[in-house]
TrEMBL record, chains A, B:
Name under which the protein is recorded: Ribose operon repressor
Gene3D superfamilies the UniProt entry points to: 3.40.50.2300, lambda repressor-like DNA-binding domains
Keyword Magnesium included in the entry's annotation: no
Domain spans labelled HTH lacI-type: 5-59
Encoding gene per record: rbsR
Keyword entries, A-Z: DNA-binding, Transcription, Transcription regulation
Domain of life: Bacteria
Gene Ontology MF terms: DNA-binding transcription factor activity; transcription cis-regulatory region binding
SUPFAM superfamilies in alphabetical order: lambda repressor-like DNA-binding domains (SSF47413), Periplasmic binding protein-like I (SSF53822)
Length: 338, 338
DNA sequence: TTGTAAGCGTTATCAA
DNA sequence: TTGATAACGCTTACAA
């Protein structure tokens, strides 16, 4: 019962050679449809699954995708937005027979670079969930032979799947002008080493005038989270430039802003309105529910997985491009149409 | 440069036999301290790392831990509480040289049971993050030769690391009696198929009288989340039994309750007080910040990892036990001392 | 079209 | 204490 099934036992059972079985499993070489079908049938019946270690050892393919969840950015599995993209990536990849393995900068006792780690683990490809585009080690990896894809970082030579951040801010600006009919707008953002944040800030800076808006403040903080939003908003409020609406570059930040506004005794949306970015699960549960730009986390994760796997499997040095996923404005209660 | 370092190249470089290198790496057999140190040194210098596939192939050990994140319970990586425990588990395990691999019920095209999957993947052990203790397949796995550990499910023959749920509710009850000086208490909980919920409900039912409390309502809902809490609280409020304080069996539920109370026009903590369970990151950010029973997610995850790994490595059929991690009451603004 | 056999990088058993 | 050698289960030339 605990006897392991191998291509040898199968070959024996069927009166064939192990090599033939292998070819069939991998869809290679010439085998008569007759034997092919017989073998496939048999395999399914007895529930045979190839030993991944043997396969890896021999073929140099590991069916493993390394995941970089940049540590210095202090983003862990707890970060709802990214872990949800990752979840979708994972689902897709698993369906294609790949496993994920988190890349850490050491292995056993040894400290090592991302690239070394990948070499040693022989991952087939790398998914960079978030990354610092100035990180030398990351760039070393990106520019190596190992296929990489990212859902945040934009650098030369890297295929990335990213939300249409410009469109997101455009939506917000249009909405502010046409629906909210407001003038004075501020923005609070996370750091520009995240490309997504940078794009949002850039679009804002370059276009608010087009919508006849006035920029009262722009705070670029050094964090991603609630506390960052809170502190930045306190700072902003104390400057008394009196923005009518604040655009936050993430929902976590937006939620912190909301709290700060309350703590300062103002009301949302009557005194100040707020627009977030992401649409995390909690956005709709907050009081008041957050108006925000929704990113399509499912598409983001799945497309990234799809593209990475196709890089890996058709190892033609694929066209690396920036693929852009549309976003959408979700109107809730932190804004008020006039 | 792309030449792979193996125990062969090392042996050659050092004028030794491959077998000797292997022994040293694995700390086995008799090797003179002299050669041992020389080899260890050399290995560190050139940054050699054993090929895991070769090792797996030969030794039957995969250094991989399967993770079950029960799907039918609709809990994904997005669930902050569980993913944070998992994160801590992961950190510990990785440090010990293990990798995590999520168990899915199929592999490639084939549907398969948890147990079959584990057999095929040859995982060294299994970590059940959350599980339904009535799930036949799960029980099959638990009762197999494969070492398992859980941080939620309690069944015969399963080692589990779990918060002291009884103590948590005890803390809440004491606090209600002695500090809040309240009488009428209600509870809203998730389903009893999660052992943690069951324990909390049981302790509450069996002990509220001891604290001279009056139970106005007990709602056992079928979900875990915000919406569950919201709907249950609306239901409860509409019954007009007027509890003075509501104990929620999770923070997500508590937050939903808070929202429902607001929506019905009541004030927290003046009209009704609320106590949660978990202390998720968001609990302190909510308005008002949630009083709750904090679970020690770090200890939970790390202890589970530690115990599993020791099961695996000292494959003595280890004492399976329930290990219990203390909890703590965090007082914030949804309660008010009298 | 099918079979044979040489690795892949380890571990483990014996022999030296 | 150290060295040689046979697996482990697969892939892939190459031979039949």
């Amino acid at each position: 019962m605990d006897k392991r099934i191998t291509i040898y036992t199968i070959a024996e059972d069927l009166g064939l050679a192990p090599g033939t079985i292998s070819k069939i499993i991998n869809n290679k070489g010439n085998v008569s449809t007759e034997t092919r079908e017989a073998v496939l049938d048999y395999i399914k019946r007895i529930g045979y699954v190839p030993s991944s270690s043997a396969r890896m050892l021999k073929s140099k393919r590991t069916y493993t995708i390394g995941v970089i969840f940049s540590e210095d950015m202090k983003i862990g599995l707890e970060q709802a937005f990214f872990s949800s993209i990752l979840q979708n990536f994972k689902n897709y990849a698993e369906n294609k027979g790949y496993e994920l393995s988190f890349i850490v900068r050491k292995l056993g006792k040894n400290k090592m670079s991302y690239y070394e780690w990948c070499l040693n683990k022989r991952v087939d490809g790398v998914y960079i969930v978030v990354g610092d585009y100035q990180d030398k080690e990351l760039l070393e990896l990106v520019n190596s032979k190992i296929p990489c894809v990212s859902t945040d970082m934009i650098v030369d030579n890297l295929h990335t799947v990213i939300s249409d951040n410009a469109q997101g801010i455009k939506l917000a600006l249009e909405y502010i002008k046409n629906e909210l009919k407001l003038k004075k707008v501020a923005m609070i953002s996370g750091p520009t080493r995240s490309k997504a944040f940078k794009e949002r800030i850039d679009y804002f800076n370059n276009n608010y005038k087009k919508y006849e808006l006035e920029k009262t403040d722009l705070i670029i903080a050094d964090g991603f989270g609630f506390t960052t939003g809170y502190n930045s908003a306190i700072e902003l409020l104390d400057k008394n430039n009196n923005p009518e609406v604040i655009i936050a570059s993430s929902d976590d930040i937006a939620l912190g802003i909301l709290k700060a506004i309350f703590d300062r005794g103002f009301n949302v949306p009557d005194d100040i309105q707020v627009i977030g970015f992401d649409d995390i699960a909690f956005a709709k549960h907050f009081t008041p529910p957050l108006t925000t730009i929704r990113q399509d986390r499912k598409k983001l994760g799945e497309r990234a997985a799809k593209d990475l796997i196709s890089h890996i499997e058709n190892d033609i040095f694929h066209s690396k491009e920036i693929v852009t996923i549309p976003v959408e404005l979700i109107e809730r209660k932190t804004t008020k149409k006039k």
